[in-house]
Every structure is written in structure tokens, then in C-alpha cells.
Amino acid sequence: MTVARKREGEAMTSDGEWAVILGVTGGTGGAVARALARSPGLNVFGMHRGHYPEQAEAVARDVQGAGRRCHLVQSGAATPEEVRRGTEELATVAGPRSVRVLVHAIANASYGHFFAPGRKRFEPAHFRKTFEAMSDSFVYWTQALLDRDLLADGARLIAFSNPMVDSVVTGWGLVSAAKAALEQYVRHLGHEIGPMGYRVMMLKFGLVDTVAVQRAFEPGEWARVRREIAAGTPARRLSTVEEVARVVSFLAGPEGEWFHAATIDLTGGQTGALLDGIFNPRRLDEPG
Predict the structure, then answer these.
(1) Cα separation of 20 and 122, whole Å?
(2) In what order do the strands lie in the sheet with 70-74?
């Protein structure tokens, strides 16, 4: 679906640099699209699965309102075939060496147990789906962008992670494993393509309040989870998608040049006091 429109006095060409955002209409991906359109002023090529059409329209409207082009494709972006089709379309829209930023914000995982009699058990298809969506596809896209000579000089390739990579949360084992793999991909890619001038990094941030996150919980559970996580976070609140997007915007600029082949912690200390909640059930902000 193309949503690029000609603004009055603006030539519709493929000139200018682009941000490629995978998972663009989810809360974080949409916020990143808006931020990058403002600073450093990138056009947006986004992939989304069509679950949130109103959010897709809002992203396109806001990016265009910032004076940038927006080209959204309703499709998965995780399998090798989806990556091939996506980069083919990107090449016709953006042109060679025009991608300044790749942001991998795909969230599509299976939930269950490795071995728990009587409960949902992970099968091989669950492994393929989760790893391909949440880790392997970051490598697929990097390879395809390099093969097609689409990356601009000094391009940034940014993956997203979360504190589960350091934790054990029942039912979320494949998410943790896929994010652990993604962290290693970032390190190895960083060393392989860093000498070419590209920068690869992972941004790890805590729980944010989005429609997609809420759907991962049973009805009524989200309010409890949000309350407990906020109580254990030093700032006593969740981070926001806008805060994450501002950091991505910073990393895309010249100031982000030296962030490379590493994980950047943007959790705000969200998980640091989990043991304190067990040993001292009374929260720190409650009166003594």
C-alpha cells in the first residue's frame, strides 16, 4: 500500500534518505517513524501486517505532515520471501544507497512451555515463527540491503530487545531465546560490517503501554502487570514509546556514530528491584 502523496510545490522523486521500519504501526514502530521524519528528517518505508489500519493511516499522515514521504507495505517482513519482496519494492521507491536507518521492531512470537504436561508445548513451527520474526529477520534484512546496495554511507541498523533476555518468565521462553540470539547477531554483524562504515546496535527498553503489549495478556491482567512493573521501577512509571523514539532519533544522527556492536540499556532500571519486591513486599514509596 503506497501512501506517499505529493505535497504542494514538492517533486515526487526518490531523492533523499530513508528509514526502513519493520513493524511500523505498532506503538513503538509508529513513534519511531514520526521521530525520524522530524529528525534527522528521513522519508519512511514501513512494513506492517495490517492489524492496526487506523494506526497505519495516522503514521502516514504524521510523516507526511513533517514534509517527508511515507510508503507503507501491508505484508509480513520476517521470512526470506517476504524480505525479498520487501527489498524489491524498497529499491523501486528509495533507490541505491539511500537507507540511512533500519529499525527492526517486529513482534510476532509464540507463547507456551518447553515441557509442561497438560499445557501448551512449543513445537518446531513455534521455534521457526518466533526466531524468524524476532531475530533471524534482522540478519535477512541486513544481508538483502547490502546485496542490493541500498544502505547509505554510515547507515544505522537498530534492533530492539527487552529485559526478558536477562530473565525467566514462564510462557515467554522463546521470546527470551530469540532476543538472546538477536543480541549475538548484533555483535557479530557489528564486527563484520563495521569496517565498511555501518553501525549496528541493539536498544533494550522496558515495558511500554501499547495495544500490541496489552494483547499479550489475559483480560484484566494488564492493569496488574502495569501497576507492579511501575512500582518496581525507580521512576515509578513505565517508559513511553516517545522516549524510545527520541533515543532512536539520536542514534540516527551524527552523535550516534560511536554506538556500535553493543546493547544500549534504556530500561530505566525497570528490573533492578525485582528481588527487592520479594524480600521486601512493602514498596519503597509506601510510608514506613
Answers:
(1) 32
(2) 70-74, 43-48, 18-22, 99-104, 151-161, 199-205, 262-266
Cell 560490517 identifies what position?
Answer: 193
In the chain, what are the helix, strand and coil shares in percent, each to the nearest 5? 45, 15, 40
- Only one residue has cell 532476543, namely 179
Domain limits, the chain: 18-268
Exposed / middle / buried, residue 205 (Cβ in 10 Å: 0-12, 13-18, 19+): buried
Q: What is the mean pLDDT of residues 216-226?
A: 86
The pLDDT tens digits of the residues spanning 265-279 come to 999 998 887 777 778
Q: What is the pLDDT of residue 214?
A: 85
CATH no. for 18-268: 3.40.50.720
Model pTM score: 0.90
Residue 91 CA to residue 73 CA, distance in Å, equals: 13
